[in-house]
Amino acid sequence: MSLLSEVAGFWMEGAMRTMEAFGQGYGSPQTDPPATTPYEVVYEGGMVRLRHYQPVERRHKTPLLIVYALIKRPFILDLQPGKSVVESLVQQGFEVYMTDWLPPARKDSWRGFDAYVNGDVADAVRVLQIREGTEQINLMGYCLGALLTLLYTSLHSDSVKNLITLTVPFDMGVRDLPFYNLVDVVSDDAVELVTRIYGNCPAWMVNGGFNLMAPMHHALDKYVGRYRNGPREGYAEMFELFEHWMRSDMPLAGQLYREMHQLIFKRNALKNGDLRIADEVVDLGRITCPLLNVVAEQDDVVHPRSSFGLVEHVGSEDKRNLAFPTGHIGAVVSAGAIGKLWPQVGQWLAERDQ
Description:
Layout: H1 3-24, E1 40-45, E2 48-53, E3 64-67, E4 78-80, E5 83-84, H2 85-91, E6 96-101, H3 113-132, E7 137-142, H4 144-155, E8 160-166, H5 178-181, H6 188-198, H7 203-213, H8 215-229, H9 235-246, H10 254-266, H11 269-272, E9 276-277, E10 280-281, E11 291-296, H12 304-308, E12 319-324, H13 330-333, H14 335-351
Parallel strand pairs: 3-6, 3-7, 7-8, 8-11, 11-12
Antiparallel strand pairs: 1-2, 2-6, 4-5, 9-10
Helix pairs in contact: 1-8, 3-4, 6-10
């Protein structure tokens, strides 16, 4: 069989799986693969379920809360043995908690930044404070989750001991990725039409937007990669898990969709300093805890220049960018990142655990 015909076959498989996902619904927790790292659910409320991953040997005092992105399932952070951020951190002796976001129904379309930041994230932090008997926690967010951690830390700075932002969409004035130019041509009326029809931004629309960010990768390159790496041990299983995650999109609550489009993407309000949540200005200068801003140098979802400038806007004295040569997803699944990046992140946290 020729390379072209086999790649076409893989591509058709992907299309069929996508059609099946439309029929079954995106983002259902019941369709998650088995967890690599054991956990227990210790809290559920609002739109969040909170997982607790306990290390065999705890070596650090301050617990870590990972705030995952809202638009896909979180198993990408615990994909396989040896390719798991959660596994790496637990093996380094950290007490790890992670948000497992629930998909919003139409009745939840009112939920915006206030509900997610001052409600769900604040509740998750309070669970850690009570369970662990501590006033301050370590906080880390991935992509849209990193944005939520920024907002939370600005508004509730006393609760955060150390902050890690991973591939954070901070400066949306950066238009180096073609997808973000589309934001300028999508009117507020179009966003209102979507929410009037569906209540929320539906999962299939989220999936389409994610794929548009890197169309050649999602449409063709990954299938060429599967063809070329197929004989490698474990690659086919990894490919299937990754494909599973790629179609695990969840709806975005209608009000949050409006606020993301109008305030973050179009007005760049966070970077410009005029974002308000529940009538309170989000002042990044209030963030004075140590900050590690992790940037993926080959990111095709959040451009590196969208993330790098964050350190210039926070009030922390102890702050730095940590750049790593990988992509948006490679930062949490690639062998290089698991072997080199996450030990650096763990070391940074450990040095500030006193």
